[in-house]
Records
---
Amino acid sequence: MDFPDPRLRPRLLSLAQAFSEQPIAPIPIALHGDANQSKAAYRFFNNPQVDLQTLLHPHYEATAGRIREYPLVLAAQDTTSLNYDAHPGKGANSPGATTLWRGLDRLADITSTFTIFHPSIPAGP
């Protein structure tokens, strides 16, 4: 993955490593309570050069490459609706939201797709 700022790639790789070890942990916990690393992570996610499309593009390409090998691919999909109206200080447009989520409405639909190309081998989300 290439970013205009060469410092972003190593930061992404270190964050990916931390979150692979603790995938559901909040940033400070995943980074073992290191305040400097946590601050750097928040700066990374707030950087205008970092967006979901850019971060997920290599994953989409890798998944597409894996499923091209199979004649039949199933795609199971689910949509979840999020409503932050009951939480006025939270959500995608709150002051603390990172640039990754800004611009989403207070009502947001998130759709995920899980591809399966063999009865026991998931291709990826």
---
Amino acid sequence: MNLNAREKLILVVVLVVVLWIAGIVTFIKPSIDDMKSAQETLDKKKIELAEKQERIRQDENLKQDIRDAYNKVIETGEIFYPKMVQHDAGTVMQDLLDVDGDDKNGQEIKNDNLSISPMSKASLTKYVYTPTEVQATLEKIASQMDPGGETKKVKPNKSSLTAYNFATHFTATKADCQTFMENLINNEHKSMVINSFSVSQVGDNDEKTEWDCSMSLTMYMIPTLKDPDIVNAQIESGVTVNALSDVAE
């Protein structure tokens, strides 16, 4: 078949276009796809890098933050007795009953008996004061709803602590009983709590009158938190670490 010059030109142009399209499909498009995928991977890595840099920035003062948190915990925990064995708890109680702290004078509050329970768990509930507000019915319903439309449920915030319970029947003067109460208030550890106190005989009810009394108390305790520097040193040396200096129950 003989082709004239015009037809030959058209055929050449068509072949060139076909070869150009084939080259794009075979070589250029995969390269573009690879470049697009690489760009997406790069963008993700940039985001990861920015997040890690932000975490590093936030952790710049981590050591000091840990130290500050430790000091805060120690300060808060000072109101509680450290966790101790039963014998040591009994000694603490005997020392408290010696109201003037003078062993030579003996125990001003004379125990007929002093019992101490085994170590147990006791719960403390936080109480939050909420002032009384007058609300219409619709306002009251709205205040109990969250954005999702579910009624809010108030959960009690309880903390479980280790404790010993004491019970004693004793005789002491009115003045010594009052001193004992004041000593509890002024005690470094505020977690010795009187649960009940009763007086069966008050006599003339003057300062030197000897009272016949019964009393129950609870000693709340928390384990001692180890210094973070000591914990870090133990971890670095390969020692299995418990951050609490605990006492066997």
